[in-house]
Task: structure prediction
Amino acid sequence: MGTEVSRRRRGVARRAVPLFVAAALVLAVAGCGKSGQGARTDPEKAADVEILNGLLAQELVLAGAYARGLDRLRGPMLAAAAEFRGQSQAHANALTRAIRNLGGETGTGPDGGAPRPRSREEALTLGYEEENMALALALEAAPRLQFDAPRTLAAALAASHSQHLAILRQGLGASPAASVPGPFETGEEPPPGQERG
Result:
C-alpha cells in the first residue's frame, strides 16, 4: 500500500510541475506593467529586461551543456538529462516571452563552441555546475525584478534548478539522503566528491 501511495504522489507531483510552469508562463504572457511603455522608455522595464536576459543566456548555456553531454549518458541519467534539457528550453521560451512582454529584445545565445564532455562524470558535472549557476542567478534575480510576472518566473526557475541538482547529485554518486536539497539552496554547493576543504 505504501508503494501505491508513493506512486500516486509521484504522479501528482509530475503533473503539478508542468501546471506550475504553465501558471508562471500565463503570468509572464499576461503582461507586465502598463501597456505602451516598453523597455525603451520605461527604466523599470528596461532593468527587468536586462536581468531576464541574463537568466535567458544561462538557460541557453545549460540546454547546450546537456545537449553536448547526452551521448555520454545511459539509462536513468540519460532520461533525466534529456528531460532537464527540454525544461531548460521551456525556461528559455518563457523568459523570451517575458522579455517581449516588457517591450524588450532578447540577447544573443551562446556561441556553441564549447567542448563535449569526455565521460559520464564530466557530463554530469558540467550539468551540475551550470544548474548551480542557473539557480544562483534565479535566486539573485527574483528580489531585484520590478514586476510580479517576471519575479514569479524567476522563483519557478529556482525551484526547478534545485530539483535538478538533487537528481544530478545522485547521478554523481551521492546517496538519496545526501542528495536532498539544503534548507536554503544557494547555487554554491559543489558537486559530490568535490566538497570544499
